[in-house]
Queue: 4 jobs
Job 1
Amino acid sequence: MDISVVVPLYNEEESLIELHQWIESSLSDANYSFELIFIDDGSSDNSWEIINDLSIKNQNINGYRFAKNYGKSQALNAGFQYAKGKYIATLDADLQDSPEELPSMINMLNEEKLDLVSGWKKTRHDSLFLKNIPSKLFNFAARIVSGIKLHDFNCGIKVYKKNVVKTIDVSGEMHRYIPVLASQAGFKRISEKEVKHQIRKYGVTKFGAERFINGFLDLLTLWFLNQFGKRPMHFFGLLGTFMFIIGISFILYLGIDKLYFNINSRLITDRPQFFIALVTIIIGVQFFISGFIGELLLRQRKNQKNYIISEITSSEGN
């Protein structure tokens, strides 16, 4: 098996047959053997019925249906788990990503000995203010934080070597940062290829403006996990120590001042420095407790799926 094409989808019934034909034509013309993996993320339309019909007619098509809508990250993670090809490709189901780009991306992967090739939608057919400008800001921030020189981190069309997707864990809403996850796992050979962005033919986008806010928050999470994920006490302990130093410093100041300089002055508990010392020491203790809890969770964490498969297409089930 040369290529596994993973397609996460949610309510894309209008585009699935055309997408299947487009993928089959593009990869067959390039003489690649392939499998097509549809991950139905709890669609409420007829997407699953269409996938099941396609899989009955073509044994190279496998479908997996989530019990509910878990999100694109969980759909990709499931697809990566079931993929069997030497190379793994991802496409969005809305026909805005062209499967015709995949053969050249695979060639680039081999010729330049890369781990991952990400698409770059240099020219986008989206709203300027709702998508284009926020996307540029988002990608600029991702480049600064991650150090990876990509123009489009969240492009749906990507090609990976098999060991990359079998190593990384895509959870939460981290599908935007798969190149960052791959780099953190040790797969540093990452590049991009300019791809065509098609005008959306059917339906509407399933993502709202809140995805950009969530994206920036996820980026901060990735940065923190990369820096301190394996040693949370180093982060929380440092902050706790800093708070303790401030608190102890004020306590020493109040004690020395009361014993040697202002013996008959007002009570220590009436002075604002006392409350500063008290608050900073309490905060320091909380930071240390957070660090200890983080270390305990890190040691007890077990691998578990973040989704439930409710149905599998007939061809895969047999």
Note: Strands lie at 3-9, 34-40, 61-66, 87-90, 116-120, 158-161, 190-194, 309-312.
Job 2
Amino acid sequence: MDKLREREKKWQNLTLADDFLFCKIMSDISLCSEMLHRIFPELDVSDIRPVETQKAEKLALHIRGVRFDVFTRIARDIFDVEAQKRRLKDLRKRPRAYHIVMGYDCLNVDTLKKSGSYEDLPNTYVIFICMFDPFGRGRHIYSFQNYCTEDKDIALGDGAYTVFLNTKGRLKDVSPELKRFLDFVGKNKVSEDAFIKALDEKVREAKENTEWRSEYMMLLTREDEIGAEKFAEGVAVGEKRGEKRGEKRAQRSIYERLVADGMPARKASMMTGWNIKGEKS
């Protein structure tokens, strides 16, 4: 019963910072379009395609796949937006893997048009909305493209864009519209902004969605099962290590008693199995 109450509390306390709720709400084309418009105000987002969430892609059976939180296309360009709550060690290299998978999908004949030229490849955008500062500089936004190392004025122009957004930013480096969005995601701060009010309303509606609630509860149950399995594995490993440590302590104790009784160290070592490397018999 305590576990059920704990899960229900988690469900009621969910915010847009959680990738489960983020994916559900951003599957709405109009909301996803406005989010991308605030991140990339220079882009025309009117031609946005249907949004796919938790989209799994795998290039081959022997290659590790990726799972996109929010995946969509605008005209021919491809976008992936990730809600990142945990600080992962491999966070900086994750966008590279995502670009590879997105780029591979772009190589089909339809995408490259009849010319088959790489020039027809669409741009790929990978965006991480972080609930922490990934680079520790206080920025709300960290944007990356490929530039010439010797001359930063020369952009490669390969169409790969990576953006890290930081809900904990301190600098005045983004538009008020984007700042209000980040404040809502990271702090659940509601303003008079129509978009933010719409998001808040969607979050409230989500809490009443019994289908989503059941799905979320199943995810928590599975996480508990995986956690229990890993814990059991850890206990088993710990017991084996404990047995080995106990065995070594016993070997050493017997070895020391035999040596104290006058037995040559090397012979005592052979009898007990205790390693006396460095000692003389």
Note: The beta strands are 52-57, 66-74, 77-84, 124-130, 141-144, 160-166.
Job 3
Amino acid sequence: MLKLIFLVLCVLSIQAHGQPSSVYGPKEFKVENKWTAIVAAYAPEIKAINRAMSKIDHAQITETVQIRGVKYQIGRYKDEPIIIFTTGISVPNAAMTMQMALDYFPIDRVVMMGIAGGINPEFSPGDIAVPERWYFHDESVYVNPNLNSGGKSGNTYVLPDYYEQALKTYHARLKTDPNAPNYSNFGYLHPEEMSVIKQGWDTPKQMPYFRATPELIKLTKQAVAQVSPIKMPSGKPIKIKIGGNGVTGSVFVDNAEYRHWLQQVYQAQVSEMESAAVGQVCFVNDVDWVIIRSVSDLAGGQQGKNVENVFDGIASGTGTKLMLGLLDQIVEQQNM
């Protein structure tokens, strides 16, 4: 009896001093067939998904649960398990909600669908982008002008030492990585990179971008070839571009000059407020992911007032059609 008590005390002592224990951390799911998460950021997007699902015989929602204020719809799509939820708008909400979902549910792939501002001048509302890489465009340092250069600031700024050193690393990377941003400032705003830590890494690493899962990009291309032509309500066919870059920030971009800067620095197709955060969380958790973005506005490239509120529902509808085609491809691959 004394030996048993001693062993229990030893176990409790180990747990108390920070050693690995089953009582800490998120649940580890022993599920053979893990789930596909279908994710959107806000109301018009999730409404388009739910409306489309309700019209499909092989799509069912069997349970709805709410955790920490987030509603999760659990069900099946062609007998494959799915979970549908809304992240909330902008980077902090997307990161928080995505990590919560991975902690609470047995998810092994994420398909996000939503709207975005079109940065590529070829895009019109309703067109679809599925970028391979996602960048944070507003991770940056705001600096003072250099007032000691002959009394005029010109285009020079007083950069912190750490940032001058970081710029050398960024510029050196351009020689080996064709997808690295071509960093330049936008006035006093000087871009920098997210520092990321992951299991197995001794120290954080700066990440210029997060890459969507190649297999899901491939399946998306197959979906484009299989789905019926996607059109606007007017009957106008939409463009679908798979590949290239998307940018994320806690900023609703509606400025022509900044839009042009995003083209120059990131070669961006679209801009929005959640995708890179979702990509970072999936990257750190080793979860497959891809993001479909349908253009709702031109991010400041338009004449006059932004029309996002006019096209958000329509753009969500075009994006949902491609998303369903991708789900079909995922199910087909799972059953091979």
Note: Residues 57 and 78 are 9 Å apart (CA to CA).
Job 4
Amino acid sequence: MIRVNSIAAVLLVCAAAAAAFLIFRYLRREKPVDMDEMEGHDFEYYCADLLRANGYTHVEVTRGSGDFGADILCMQGDVTLAIQCKCWDGPVGVSAVQEIYAGRDYYGRMAGIVMTNQYFTAPAREMAARLNVILWDRDAMEQLAAALET
């Protein structure tokens, strides 16, 4: 009887150690970086990855400074796009809309989009509607990010 109890105790200790090891590995696994924690250029590459995962082609991140208002150039079907990326702590205003409006024309693109991890101010939404600029806020970004998870 003592021998059976000793074997059971050893098995129980081994099972507990294995469970602890698996829990430790699970907790230490590499976690994706939250888009709110990204630096500007990292956010641009993240946005480019989202676009690729959602079927956009010819996705190119422009140079960091002097990009003439567009951070990403790409295509959706036959439509050429210029995209401005804003990873901010608060609402995105009209300056982002102005930047992509200029960038869209500078690069000769058919459409301009502003992507952000936040939301847009009412004046930004109004200006975008007048200038035919597409706005993708945090909700749109999360929908695009769902394609990365599949």
Note: Residues 24-32 have pLDDT under 50 and may be disordered.
